[in-house]
Design brief:
Largest sheet: 4 strands, antiparallel
Oligomer: single chain
Number of strands: 4
Helix content: 40-55%
Shape: elongated
Distance between the termini: 60 Å
Strand content: 35-45%
Length: 97
């Protein structure tokens, strides 16, 4: 009788562990397909964003093949400058090494 209870308990834990592993794998696939590959195909994406002060942000945004520095705060958005693509790509290469 005790062996039957222990066996059932272990079998249940195995099923729960397999279900959790399946959900984890599905979430990783969903995340990489939704955010990883589709971000490259999107026309507009935020490359980087940082908070300078409360309610004030600085963002580097890619629109098409061009990059822009934008400042925002208190319901306003201001174009600061256009950034050269070579500068953005050089920074990405530097970070990945």
């Amino acid at each position: 009788m005790t062996q039957h209870i222990v066996g059932s308990y272990l079998w249940g834990l195995t099923i729960v562990a397999l279900a959790l592993a399946g959900f984890y794998a599905a979430a990783r696939v969903w995340r990489s397909s939704r955010f990883g590959s589709s971000c490259k195909k999107r026309l507009i994406s935020v490359v980087e964003s940082t908070v300078l002060m409360p309610q004030t942000v600085l963002q580097v945004v890619r629109i098409g093949r061009r990059y822009y520095a934008l400042g925002g705060g208190a319901g306003r958005l201001t174009l600061l400058c256009e950034l050269p693509e070579s500068e953005i790509e050089a920074d990405r290469t530097f970070r990945s090494t």
